[in-house]
Write a structure and sequence with these properties.
This protein is of the alpha/beta class. Helix content is 36%, strand content 16%. It has 23 helices and 18 strands. A six-stranded parallel beta sheet has the order 9-8-10-11-13-12, sandwiched between helices. The protein has a five-stranded parallel beta sheet with strand order 2-3-4-6-5, with helices on both faces. Helix 1 crosses helix 3 (56-65), helix 6 runs parallel beside helix 7 (157-166) and helix 12 (286-299) packs parallel to helix 18 (418-430). The longest helix has 22 residues, at 24-45. It starts with 23 loop residues before the first helix and ends with a helix.
Length: 587
Amino acid sequence: MTNLHPDFLLNKISKPADLKGLTLSQLQQLADEGRQLVVEKDAAIGGHVGPNLGAAEATVAFHYVFDSPQDKIVWDISHESYIHKMLTGRKEGFLDPDHYFDVTGYTSPDESEHDFFTVGHTSTSVALATGMARARDVKGEKGNIVAFIGDGSLSGGLAFEGLNNAATLNSNIIIVVNDNQMSIAENHGGLYRVLDELRASNGTSANNPFKAMGFDYRYVADGNNLADMIAAFKAVKDLNHPVVLHINTLKGKGYQPAIDNKMAFHWHAPFDIETGEPKAKRQPTYWDAVLAELDQQIAAGQPIVALNSAIPGAFGLKAFQAKHPDRYVDTGIAEQDAITEAAGLAKNGARPVVFQNSTFLQRAYDQLAHDVTLNDLPVVMLITSSGISAASKTHLAIFDIPYLTSLPNLEYLQASNQEELISMLQWALRQTDHPVAIRVPSGPVVHGFAAHDTYAPLQYNIIQKGSKVALLGLGKFLALAEETAAKLGEHGIEATVINPMSASTLDTKALDALKANHSLVATFEDGSLAGGFGEHVAAYLGDSNLKVLNFGAKKAYSDNTPVADLYQEFHLTAELATQDILAQLTK
């Protein structure tokens, strides 16, 4: 074991009960040690920095006052749970660099009895805690149920729904509103004006939405004061009615770069501890080209409005906001509102461009179905962070092809390079017939065919004409199809290579043409095979003599698994794909 800090008090803590006999100064020492370990680990491998630093005292106070796991805490998103993990038997994952990857970045019941949900999306804690409280009451059990919600998560619709129902309980539920005046970026929405009033009045403002809903309400002016947090938790412990404990904290406390740049240090890639600067130099991104194109579209008179849901940094949208403040909307952590608001914009003649993360967009599936595709409105969506990755199972982004292609009227385009991406965006903004989503490739920028004037929607691009085997490489995986074709060439097979460009609409003319001189079709997609592009191709060709092989991700939740390992498992390498194709040809 390579314990970086053998002298830390944390080494003596194996479970929350170990905190009970500590002095206030020792408890503060634990909070400070926790902060240091958060910074060290995140600097080495990346992670949520500011959220955990700001919640240190509240976390230590909770485990000092309450009795976990009989008393249960539900962490919203659970990105503020790092110090909770240290205090609940997982300290080695923070003290020892050799074990950094043993502990996930979110709560996990597989890791500890002190975690109750695998969760990584926002605004869920209040509803989850309400359900747990109802179950406790039905079974006649005892114990406190605590929801810990912060970082702008109150802006999500599910948080409002949860509060609405939690307020009607006639039993114990404690909702800790960790108010650090931030979402991922700055907060947006009228609710946060009310929180401003509550902070300014030391919690006494008559304009109190929590009291209006029926909650008991308590306020802590300094949620980073350990003694005050201990007193506050003792005061609400074992109450027989719903209470909101509103605490004012400093996001990033204890690490100046995280205080000075709260948005960048919400989640940060590996960085230099002394300077706070990223270890990797910034490289050009696809978003640079997208935003440059939107600038040109606005200059040409297009009524573009860009929308995102609390993650502008993922797309470089702060620069766009500075240039076009009247053309930028941040809905807060509210993907549903962003999609439905975009429908309203499109209906009234604007050209909404919605920037969304694949794993967050799935939260707005109903709005995509009911408000956008049912009304067949020309909303344009740009989808990021899609495809097979080493992400936590809470943030897998392999399901966007199945869930988007299941909807009528929606065209889901898949770009394989920057020039193709911009061509698709130009076409999407020109046409006004249907909603269009475009998957923006992940990884380093790839340049290729400049299709600005020749992009033909819903018509496959034949990259290489051959026979016997046809390889359809969707989006980013066009490169894998080309590599596989080269491998097949070593075996005397000149394969046809096709760029389908669309995940949602089959070019049936092109597929029918393959029947004349091909015996096998292989599809490659960077996503789940279940309900995916390959299955659509296989279903269409099912009544023909063509064999079909689909390459993509299994329908499963991988968890922080290296991409190279997943590619091996799914045979998403030219060597393994070639072996599978040759084996099928000989059957």
